[in-house]
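Open question from group meeting: does this chain pack into something compact, or does most of it stay loose? Before anyone orders reagents, we agreed to write out a predicted structure and look at it together. Recording both the input and the output here so the notebook holds the full record.
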Amino acid sequence: MDVARLVELNATYARVIDNEQFEEWPKLFLDPCLYKVTTAENVARGLEGGLIYADTRGMLEDRISSLRKVNIYEGQRYRHIVGLPMVLGQANGTAEVETPFLIVRIMRDGAMDVFATGCYRDKVKPDSAGALRFEERVVVCDGRRFDTLVAIPL
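Structure tokens returned:
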């Protein structure tokens, strides 16, 4: 799989979240799909559960609807710093990819802190139009503590 296209997919992913274009986020996934946020500790222990778990694009859309209309959380936004993707394997048109990330959280008052670090473990393949989409995105966070609701997708 072309690494430049994977870089573009990751850049688009980070941009739609960082620019609060949340309704564009589910469009980066196939349907059905898997989006899960978990910890490195859970992965090491073979625990399947996650802080967030969605297995259809509809569930991702519901998450955004909830974020926009229901969730109450302190005003904040993210800035993603995404590393270069490493293709770990390919089979049947699907690439297994791992990409490191760092997310800085910016609060309404301007305070900034490192919110999460880790890696994205993805299965990526082209949709019917040839655009790369996530079949799976497992967000593996290095730490296991979050000091606030994880309302915004990582």
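Observations to bring back to the group:
The chain has three helices and seven strands.
The beta strands are 29-39, 52-54, 76-82, 86-91, 94-107, 112-126, 132-141.
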